Amino acid sequence: LSLSLPLSFVPSFLYYQVNLEYLGRVVFNSGGLLYPDSLVGTDSHTTMINGLGIVGWGVGGIEAEAVMLGQCISMVLPQVVGYKLTGVVSSYATSTDVVLTITKHLRQVGVVGKFVEFFGPGVAQLSIADRATISNMCPEYGATVGYFPVDDMSIKYLRQTGREAGSVEMIEKYLRAVGMFRDYSNSEQDPAFSQILELDLSTVVPSLSGPKRPHDRVSVSDMKTDFSQCLQNKVGFKGFQIPADKHGASAPFSYEGKDYTLKHGSVVISAITSCTNTSNPSVMLGAGLLAKKACERGLSVAPYIKTSLSPGSGVVTYYLKESGVIPYLEQLGFCPHTASDTDPNFHLVGYGCMTCIGNSGPLPEAVTTAVEQADLVAVGVLSGNRNFEGRINPHTRANYLTSPPLCIAYAIAGTVLIDFEKEPLGVDSSGSPVFLKDIWPTRAELQEVERQYVVPAMFRDTYSKITESNSSWNELEAPDSQLYPWDPKSTYIKSPPFFDGMTQDPPAVRDVEKAAVLLNLGDSVTTDHISPAGSISRTSPAARYLSSRGMTPREFNSYGARRGNDSVMARGTFANIRLVNKFMSKPGPKTLHFPSGESMDVFDAAERYRSEGRPLIVLAGKDYGSGSSRDWAAKGPWMLGVKAVVAESFERIHRSNLVGMGILPLQFTDGATTETLRLTGKEFYSVQVPPQLKPGQLLTVKTDSGVSVEVRCRIDTDVELTYYQHGGILNYMVRKMSK
């Protein structure tokens, strides 16, 4: 399927909510020609727009650059899974709890590469913000889109957000005329689906997901027991393997003149962050009202807990301020002034991707020292969508996703080892216990505050100033030359080597001969494992490079900030401190060089192989490349010399990115794994790539130990095959433009 209709294209992280509130048109009017709106964005959570009835999904930056240059997007025609919603969400559950429940369910079913469309009478009970929350986490449950067709609620939302009345009327008339307007209570309008799943919304309970993956949901009522079990489980997605005699470990420390004690399960980060929840008035105002009630009962947050608030748009700040909850969030430390290393509490730190992407910043030194000395499993709690290992903060081994109100609740409690139904959050000024249920906002309270303060004038006022509101941005000077003036002294932006040595005509596709295995990985290796965006370790190859350029550790910044420098990003590839490589006895960014067997940093091993003239491959398990649509997770391996990745399965965007960089994605067939094939990764591998390679063709991988295994080439379309034959999508576009 090639999409050649006009597509909206949004290359930004913050624009999810701006798409909903301002940019999304639902129906285009191009000189009298009406057609449905659509969207491609350079981040996986572009799917948030599906909540407004606009089909849209994320692609990697590599593919997006080709779109901007006029190239169509190609994909295999997807199956469409119908997800029927019935019932009504209980007064104690939120849209966050709904999406965490759906995410776990769909991951269990398996919907990678499929479209999911929600239908049924339960949908009518969900606001557009609730639907957008569910659509936003589409990448976490693996689908390409999580689509909600337009209905009366969608039209009301367009009016609420200040869209022009004539446009809204046109949208409704057009969609009714072409049969795309949905009445969710009318089962006769339900489409025919490839598969149907169902959820009764009344069964959804307050939830978290973690400690290491977004789809490992646990109910709040089970949290204390579940975390205790995770401590003793062997190392894995639900385990830390803490020795039994260390479960009661503690670390006393002093902070701001007072004494505190950290234990396993202590909360050290609580962040209301991420596009998933900060666009939803019900959970944001719910957090504000809970903060108000908590303060009125005399509850507080320990000052060493690093708390923050990063709204999805200026509208959120507007209604939080107008509703009067800001002073209470501020009293608990959540906003509104700028945070610093010495003042870590809840602050409005800005807009866009913050703690959820690893931009939490350092914890107070006293806290990190205590965590390290007692080897504690400290906890981060965030209203985000991703909690992969090593992503949030190097000192929080456990990270849980949950709703904004529960972020505040766990910050007050100071630990996840609490049963909110039986144990109080604290005591009030009279010494009486205060339980979470005592301060939890009612549905009626939330609806009244939202009705009063989330109004069209607020949206119009915010977006009327959208080009004028940031004077710092407007004052930036930008070069007006056709070619970018590279600064050789810059450690942030550097001319990349992607086109070095490129010829006018593509070279012949070459076989992969006697390749070494750079890493032997397991299941659910994310793009954060492959190309982390967080802080740069002082002992890493990237740190050594920056130090050689005169940088001090305080100036290292993060991999995300340095993504314009290929020398940093190549050294940061597979640099995640929680990376589990089967070659090594413990997690970390290390591997073995073969045949010497020498242990070294991944980058250093790749450089050694390069000097020996040996190509590289990566072995992996299921869901390789899940997580962010991070193009450096493909560019980085390319720079290390990786020619192919052999995995049990691939996540959609990352598989596309690999092809876009000329890396061959190969998938085991018939349930084969490295274990069933008895592959150690210490072998050398060869892959014969025929000159007339076809999408989905079966190829043979041979090892020098005599093993021969059939794999499927996961180049899925003819267009992708063309990209691969050119050595990548960017090479193809440059050659196409030059002709």
From TrEMBL:
One of its GO terms (molecular function) is metal ion binding. Signal peptide: none annotated. This is aconitate hydratase. Its EC number is 4.2.1.3. It is found in: Cytoplasm. GO terms for cellular component: cytoplasm. It comes from the Eukaryota. Residues 17-414 form the Aconitase/3-isopropylmalate dehydratase large subunit alpha/beta/alpha domain. InterPro entries: AcnA_IRP_Swivel, Acnase/IPM_dHydase_lsu_aba_1/3, Acoase/IPM_deHydtase_lsu_aba, Aconitase/3IPM_dehydase_swvl, Aconitase/IRP2, Aconitase_4Fe-4S_BS, Aconitase_4Fe-4S_dom, AconitaseA/IPMdHydase_ssu_swvl. Its cofactor is [4Fe-4S] cluster. NCBIfam families: aconitase_1, PRK09277.1, PRK12881.1. Belongs to the aconitase/IPM isomerase family. Gene3D superfamilies: 6.10.190.10, Aconitase, domain 3, Aconitase, domain 4. Keywords: 4Fe-4S, Cytoplasm, Iron, Iron-sulfur, Lyase, Metal-binding. It is an enzyme of class 4 (lyase). It catalyses: citrate = D-threo-isocitrate. Residues 543-670 form the Aconitase A/isopropylmalate dehydratase small subunit swivel domain. SUPFAM superfamilies: Aconitase iron-sulfur domain (SSF53732), LeuD/IlvD-like (SSF52016). Its main location: cytoplasm.
